[in-house]
Design goal:
- The chain is mainly alpha-helical.
- It has a domain at 12-54.
- It is 42% helix and 6% strand.
- It has helices spanning 16-26, 33-43, 48-54, and strands spanning 12-13, 45-46.
- Strands 1-2 form a two-stranded parallel ribbon.
- The longest helix is centred in the N-terminal third of the chain and has 11 residues, at 16-26.
- The chain is elongated, with a radius of gyration of 17 Å.
- The N and C termini lie far apart (50 Å).
Length: 69
Amino acid sequence: MLNADPLLQRPKLLNTALVARALDSLKPQAGSPVEMWRMLTEHYVVDLDAVAKLLPPKEPETHWLPARE
């Protein structure tokens, strides 16, 4: 995680509507949800719960069991 500089002023995104706008503006630059999280936390002070509501969760890969014969 980013080592935040307390002297650096960053915009605050503390509600879902502001986070949604930031996600829309950063979407073309981010290649993955992980990169989106990184970009948000580097450029903004964000409500992480609001971000988690808007970004889709990473689903585990389906593991199929072999068929019985």
